[in-house]
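Holo prediction. Input below; ligand is dioxothiomolybdenum(VI) ion.
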Amino acid sequence: MSMTIHVGSPRRRVDGRLKVTGAARYAGEVAAPGLLHGYVVSGTIARGRIAWIDTAAAEAVPGVVKVFTHANRPRVPAGDSGYQDMVAPPGQPFRPLFNDRILYSGQPVALVVAEDFATARYAASLVDVRVDAEPHETDLDRARETAYVPPKKRDGIAPPPEPRGKADEAFTASPVRVENEYRIASEHHNPMEPHASTVVWERDRRITVYDKIQGVNNSRDYITSVFGLSPEDVRVISPFVGGAFGIGLRPQYQLFLAVMAALDLKRSVRVELTREQMFTFGYRPGTINSVAAAANPDGKLRAIRHEAVAGTSSFEDYQEVVVNWSGLLYHCDNVALNYRIAKIDTYTPADMRAPGAPLGVFAIESAIDELSYALNIDPLELRLNNYADTDENEGKPFTSRELRAACREAADRFGWAERRPEPRSMREGRELIGWGMATGIWEALMMPHSARATLTADGKLEIGCATADIGTGTYTILTQIAADSLGLRMENVTTRLGDTSLPEAPVEGGSWTAASAGSAVYLACEKVRQTLFRHARGMDASPLANASFEHVRFRDGRIELRTASPEGVSIIDVMRAAGLDRIEEQETAAPNAETKEKFSQYTHSAVFAEVRVDEQLGVVRVTRIVDAVAAGKIINPMTARSQIIGGVVFGIGMALHEESMLDHNLGRFMNRNLAEYHVPANADVPEIEVIFVDEHDDKANPLGVKGLGEIGIVGTAAAIANAIFHATGKRVRSLPITIDKLM
Ligand code: MOS
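Structure of the complex:
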């Protein structure tokens, strides 16, 4: 990049105004002539068969157009592959209204379509569903007895590495040992915007779909393969997403139902889910970790063993990376990691913000904390003394790893040196004060990604790619990158996202979008620069006639010589002189295969937490958090900070509040609303200080950025749990840490 005016500087969100004024339209808000509304009837048993469904009363309601069930639905393919979306785990994807089988509680069993939403909802209450229930199992503690290593690996999810050294022998031979079980409750994503799809029927077999999704290409491909439509006849649009956190990665059943109804009725149809129905598909799986860690009395780590069991559905083998982190954080010669899944009768779990990482990291970072007390060594010192300089899972160097700097900078800012080591040694009035810390780690991924840059004769630039902005700031950072590349003001750059008519993108997930979309935009703009420069040199009496590309810079809408008194030409003049109404370039950025082969790419963090615990009541307040993040180059410190704060708030939720409660008798998640499923509210969120440590990475991707959407959550719950132990002397190994566990 020739000049970095915008990249690296705080910039307000370019889409902020649209969002706060309500001008941004979400999938469930789009208008269409003659729009019909679908309301989903949710099943109530966890396993069994539908014996019969009586839809007569619903159909008799004025305004009801049709009631769809498995008995009358249009023909759909029977095979699994048609339903396997871009990020599907191995197995048989759920097929809505496919047959009479009930696979989980909350499964859609009918769709009532009416002229308006209220009528559809009322009529849905009249649909009479009779079922034959079969025994179900939703209890992971019982199901874990049948846990298995997934026979087929999920794409993009690394299985645990081969064991190194002899973990069992080294553990037994070590003088200082800890061995415990750590649990994390199931959680639901609870984005503010519930899932919705509005299908605009254009003409026979041609539709435009507004979907709540983290990747329009995923929805489009799903629709074309399930309904046998051609890609040219299906456009999916999703420019704004009201929170997703992973639950928008896979197409969900409301999309299937809305498209099915629209194609069948040859009318536009919207299906929106209720908050309660948001608990009827993917969720973060409850996970049980067994960790053993051992050291010499001097604090040298000898052995780590980490085994995890997590729930999956009866029909898909969901997998995430839970245990691998334990082999990455510390230098240790004897490591054994193991991951298994167990089938329970719920829907398939789904990726949720840093899927797997905060679960495994809670376990290992709690165990290391416990070891520090057993050794009587400061928890931070113990970590730094066992620092891993290379990726010992893979035997590769890191592209960069400023975790040590993150630990030191966060510790300084937090005032860790003032900490009294003994538990229960710090208090104020009736409150016990605890200081705890943990580290975090997440992948710094890059995916193949395309983008288009279009410069028009008025000197304005449009950037386009199909990726989503799920609230992360993608619109803003892409605008910054493009503006700097061509030396434009940000107001003169428009970024368009979330539309299958734009260049193809993967789902926005895995914290890879800044690196991937950002690199693609950078490359496309680079091509526009070169084309422009060629035309600039060819102008009559061009001051750049003898210049080479390296000798010019793009600044203030001009191409100039890099000299003290720069001569140059304006972009608008170049376009006019060349008689061009536009320069349009499309590029694809892809990760460098050789770098991927030789190096490991991770983002790191160090989280320090202060809690205050009311000794009589057991009420925990998180009163301070400092999170230092090493994530390569920071494109926009303002949106970057917001990402980390959001992740930390998720971590507070995981530590203290969030829990999707299954009633194993009914086989159903019970607290299906925001009153009973607690997410942190303002009063639960303290001052959060975010530090970005200097980290230079010239290998991870062309921009040197590592992504920020997920790292904020990763070490947070562990740091809070460790602080609670320091405050109270009570080690709680099961999240969330609710009052009852402290009494
Ligand atoms: Mo993320 S859980 O890949 O949206």
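The pocket of dioxothiomolybdenum(VI) ion is lined by residues 214, 245-246, 249, 351-353, 355, 509-510 (CB under 6 Å). That is the main takeaway for now.
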